[in-house]
Each structure stands twice: as C-alpha cells, then as structure tokens.
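Hi V.,

Quick status before I head out on leave. The structure for the redesign project is tokenized and pasted below; the design run finished overnight.
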C-alpha cells in the first residue's frame, strides 16, 4: 500500500517549503543580512515553530497522512504569520527585510497557500481511512 496521491502532493510541497528555508539563513549560507542578535524572540517564534513543524510533518505525513496534514496546515499558517510580522518590521525591530528576503517570503506565502489546500484535501481523504 503506497502513499495516496493527495498525501504525496502535500509531502512534495512540504519538502519544497523546507528547502526554501535556506534563504533565511545568514550569509554565506543564505540571503539574510540583518544581524541575528537583534531578532525579537517573541516575534521570531512563528518562524521557529513553523520550521520545527515542517520538519516534523514530513515523516508523520508519510506514516499517518491525517495527522501529518494537520501539522502541514499549522506549518503553513505559522509561516504566513511569520512573514506578516517580518514585513511589518516586528521580527527585527526597526528593520524591514531585504528585497531578496521579501521575494522569498512572497514565494513562501504562495507555497503556504498551496500547502494548506493540499493538506486540507489530504485530511479530508484520509478521514475515512484512519477511523476504525
């Protein structure tokens, strides 16, 4: 018994979202140029929790698509919240993100919308399979 196609699509989107995290690492590994020391812990939490849930959702989605899809939806929602906080200057107080980070954040918001849609579909399709 293989992974359902809806779960496979969600899995691929979550992996792409995880790979996109590379942009947020400081130079020379990523594109972030703002000092990490000035990052607000409270407003940076959505990003860290989203990263953790993203890593957690991938193997869980493989084994239990219904539970993994919930993690995927939470990941995407927290990612959108983190992007909104970063774009308003709350993550690094007084500094808006550089243009390259803003571009990656726009891509991540689109990816997050696709993850939410795909994971919701996975959740609905796995609903009958996980009961009983």
């Amino acid at each position: 018994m293989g992974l359902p196609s809806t779960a496979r699509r969600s899995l691929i989107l979550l992996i792409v979202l995880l790979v996109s995290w590379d942009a947020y690492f400081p130079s020379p590994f990523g594109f972030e140029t703002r000092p990490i020391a000035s990052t607000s812990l409270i407003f940076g939490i959505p990003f860290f929790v989203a990263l953790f849930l993203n890593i957690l959702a991938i193997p869980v989605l493989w084994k239990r698509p219904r539970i993994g899809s919930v993690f995927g939806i939470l990941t995407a929602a927290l990612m959108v919240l983190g992007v909104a906080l970063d774009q308003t200057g709350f993550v690094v107080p007084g500094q808006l993100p550089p243009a390259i980070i803003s571009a990656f954040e726009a891509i991540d918001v689109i990816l997050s919308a696709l993850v939410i849609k795909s994971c919701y579909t996975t959740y609905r399709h796995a609903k009958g399979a996980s009961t009983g």
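Above is the designed sequence. The chain is about 70% helix and 0% strand.

G. will cover questions while I'm gone.

Best,
W.
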